[in-house]
Batch of 4 targets.
Target 1
Amino acid sequence: MAARPRELTPDRSARHLFGAKMRAHRERADTSLEGLSDIVNVSRSHLARIETAEAMPPPSLPARLDAAFGTDGIFEELYRLASREIHPDQFRRQMELEARARLIEEYSPQIVPGLVQTEDYARAQFVVSSPKAATDAIEDLVTARMSRQALLKADPPPDLSLIIDEAVLRRGFGGPAVMRAQLARLAELALTPTTVVQVLPFDRGGHALVGGTLRLMTLEDGARVAYEESISTGTLLEDIGIVAERQRAYDLLRACALSPGDSAALIRSAMEELPT
């Protein structure tokens, strides 16, 4: 006797609604999970977990579902809502503003900023920070982080300015191969029409932002907000005066950092020092 499908609760969240709609359209098309797996190139087991809201859909799946079922963007719309629900509540408001930003400026003292992380680097970071977490939980976090990067492919994308401490280049996650690929990505982004990456060398000494990560976002109407992040908490700053203070600290840090060209050279030097 076949196992009874898990009951769906589409009223609970966009993630549950995504799974319910996916099952409904699949059954309406008289398609099994195996058959859908062949069409969308996602494993049967993963599709089953997505239907029951136990797993987050990968970023490539919504468009493939819309194409398979002829649903005219419904799954892509649901995905945009569902992808926000995996993040902690204090982060959701920041994500909404990030999606509206025309300029994102970020200082990161310890790790590569999430918007430009490779999938393997993100996975290694999550494993280190949550060593007891189940593999499925880690993969959901990785999927959520990768989904944030979609805004960099928007038309037009926001301008992105990153200042990373030299420690980011030296502190490895996932081993030499993972770090080499991650550093290569940073070097590629050092100076493009929409991205700038600058490295703050150790010899620049202390500064006002040394205590944590800072993200500054300029919205389409010119308004500015700031988001500060520590190990497990984040604080959204919208007071004009406080944001101006953080902007001033960031601008001073940028003046002390290496140029994009010299930053790319230092990044490639760090790559060459990695063991083969």
Target 2
Amino acid sequence: MSTNEITPGSAIPSFVVDSVDGEHIRQIALILDDPNPIHFDLDAVAAAGMGDREINQGGSTMAYIIDMITSWAGTRSALQRIKCRFRDNVRAGDTVTAGGTVLEVTGGGDNRRALCDVWVDRGDGKRVIDGTVVVAIPED
């Protein structure tokens, strides 16, 4: 990120996942020891009235925002705060795009920070997560 160009209204380059992988969803459920069958059992997904594809973990969907910020800032440690609201589900096979915009820049020198509006949109245009992040901006 070119720190001189970070101003309110600046867009954060988006992060796109072309197709959320159902196998990845199942593996994350195993790694997290997540017993919720909507992440790995298609019969349970259907029985819950949630369609016919595995449901991505909310934290995995939020991680797309973290990946976007890390790519933009150059380091994961620049992300100082994340606050999100989960609005809808992401399913295996969905395309998702994480995006963001700088709302304000505060501080100076080593204490310069950007407050950013962030979101994840599903390929059908539905916003599935929205929130804010605070990102440390390094000195040039």
Target 3
Amino acid sequence: MSWYPEPDETLIHRGRATFATGRAAKVAGMRWFRDESGRDIAADLPGWPEAPAYTPNSDAAARTNKAVWGIGKAVVVVAALAVNAVSNANPDVDLGDGARPTDPAREVEDFPVLVAAPGTVARTLPYQLDPDRRDKLFTTELAVTDRRLVILGIDNGPGLKPTQVLWEAPREVLGSVVKHAYAGGGADVSLMFSDGSWARLRLESTAVAIQLVHELCPPKRVEMTELALKKLKSRAEPTKLEHTWEAVSQDDGSVLAQRVMRLEGRELRGKNYQVTKWIETDAAGEA
């Protein structure tokens, strides 16, 4: 049995969400849960099962891992040794999208996905959001309505099982939402709660991240300029569908935009575009 919003409630989005995972080589595949002073609190969270304890890779190991990821297996060993021998580069590396960390302490040297003092909202989030603490056949989803945020749990094992409501809170608990530029697939957002606690989640796609920041955090919306719209018209696939544009600022100051098309009452989102320079040059009166 699935989950549905209340009859007087409008569903904005529903899709997969988990705690995020580190991208930089020192913390790739890792995540931590901390209090406001940086102390690991995973063992203090009531009802949370144990999970692997991560230790950041050394700089040398991180450089080796970078070489392993970036080249074919046939030359892995030689290239890894070469990188280790001659490179003192930061293990935060470009994986092809040009993004760089905006907070190296929390994206390169460490990777907290939950920072919360005792008694704060983020500490109430369900452990099932952590892939290390749940069954491999169990998935979690984030549902956003016009009234609340809901974390849903779906057991995909044998037999038909009802969708579980693992957590919910009114939208008013949110102070802000941050879209991270330096993230796997560009799909990381941080939910910044009004009490100062926060959690970093990985969503289904960049399109969903843009949508939810636009919906949940009006201050991060960016008005499209005439220049930006003109440039996008020449780059985006032509469409006869009714459409608008969503544009939001990321934590590195860049701006992403995506077209929202409407077909038979449904909203369709596709490719996203960097529009930062067009908005800046338009504001400066440049072509």
Target 4
Amino acid sequence: MSKENFESLKGSIAAMEAAETKIPNMPVDVYLQEASDLYEWSKADQNQLIKVGVPKAYFTEMEARIGALRYAQSIWNKDQYTKEEAQQEWDEMSPKAVDLKNEIEHAFRFAFRKRPDLLAKVQGVEQGTSNADLVQDLSDLAALGLANLPLLKSINFEEDKLHLAASQASEMSILLAKANGERKEDSSPKITRDKAYSYLKQAVDEIYEAGKYVFWKDEERRQGYLSRYLNKAS
């Protein structure tokens, strides 16, 4: 049902302007529960709240807005989990890749000791220490080694290590792209989640404010228009 809710409101959610889009100020699961509680609480007061300016659509769409955010949050959670897994894989693979890179460079410096042109290329590869550099270095070393196999075979260097470097570069490039994606605050699933949250928040905030206004002398009813999470935090 949440997916259907999201699909029905996808256009309105996507249309949210950047200036209107907010980042959740509490755990989203808590916010969803509070929005559901507010919807149930406000049912008896809808006519009074509509009279003071709350759009009727906020009540008719509330369940769908809640479902849309629940779906968008689940998609973002899934996206995050995939990236966290990629980061864990990277952390496990990269030390071995660094060892392989160092071993290949060590062999190249000896095998190419009489070829200044090739040594210059090895030195160029050795520049840079970022994760992206590691991926590119493995690829460059594999290509350089395969292009100069006779020199490497003369020192009994194993060609398989070059093929391993090439395959690791390819695999680690994919892992790095996924792992880096987790740090991007402009990732598509996160933007969608924030917009779905903001779209629900429009209705929730309006109902909260109207409820506090209408029931300013009725403390029992007024309590239903306060966020328990935010009031507890303050």
